[in-house]
Amino acid sequence: MKPIPSEMKYLGQYLKGVRSDLGLSMYEVAKRTTLTPSYISKIENGNAFHTISAHILIEFSKCYNLPIVTILERSGFVPPTEDEFPGLSSYLRLKYNAPPHAVSDMELAWEIVKKRHNLTS
Description:
Blueprint: H1 6-21, H2 26-32, H3 37-45, H4 54-64, H5 68-75, H6 88-96, H7 100-116
Helix pairs in contact: 1-3, 1-5, 2-3, 6-7
């Protein structure tokens, strides 16, 4: 059996964490996507698949209201963007049902924190 790439392990852990943070069961995710609970479980465990299709990433992206790039960044497939807090807007909208003005306030606050602590690139 081939070793599992670390990115696949991190992908599973990240997707499981997002699902958990959103308070969704695998069955609820399955209802919202074309995926089955057993397939979701295998992906989250990171021990069954060495590759994953773009279709599957799109399913998770739509269900969790996250940009695919955020999923890829958090899983280690691509390096994180330097100039943006990855997925902050999507996370706030989905997790807290934050209205657009609240999301804008948080993005502004993040810009202030980056400047105050010299975190700008």
